[in-house]
Amino acid sequence: MAQPSAAYLGIIRVIDKITEWTGPIFMLIVIPLILSNVVEVFMRYVFKDPTIWALDVTTMSFGALFMLGSAFGLLKGAHVRTDMLWDKFSEKKKGVIDSCAYIFFFLPAMAILCVSSFDDFLYSMSINEKSNSGAWQPIIWPLRAVITVTTGMLFLQGISELLKSLWAARTGEVLVHHEKIEV
Fold this sequence. Notes:
The protein is an all-alpha fold. It contains seven helices and no strands. The model has no long low-confidence stretch (mean pLDDT 93).
């Protein structure tokens, strides 16, 4: 069995470690998501006085949770695949398909989205953009920043996954085994 260079493995390990470390931190966003809903239900049904902020907090925290958790999902293999077809492919064929997908679709898309969302974030911050979905009207540039961070994290994890796929395409061997999360 051929072994990749230490630098090759080092890049994969560093990127995967960053994603492993940030994933659980980003999961803490579930706290304001749950608390805002609990407070809203309590205020609405006990005091008959609904809040003006709970919907916005719920929407923003769920969006942030979903987006920021996507790189962690990519690392863990939790994104959608057609398993009934995918499982029949050899590791080498899977590596070729994934390598092409990362090179031609995933990485270019994440790079474009990261750059354009960063411009949107800067503009949103410069005009102090506010939500118009309710009476509270909170600033939304932090949520715009989440889009930039998400696409950056996905790009970074995509590089790690590309390196793993290239190794599988070349050797027919899976380089790094991760637990597979079923959603």
